[in-house]
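Ticket #4471: structure export looks truncated?
Reporter: QA, pipeline team
Priority: medium

Steps to reproduce: submit the single chain below to the structure queue and open the exported record.
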Amino acid sequence: MEIKEVFITHLEEDWGKSYDDYRELERELHFIHFAYDGLKIQL
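Actual output as written to the record:
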């Protein structure tokens, strides 16, 4: 598999992470993205 991008959905607030925390993780993990309300993905 040549996975280019991963989108993680249905995050639990129990993780205690804010939107900014997830954005920081995205910068560190270049091909992983965290979904948010209203996200549109074009395939």
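Status: closed, not a bug. The export was complete when the record was re-opened. Leaving a note from the reviewer for reference: The chain has a mean pLDDT of 86.
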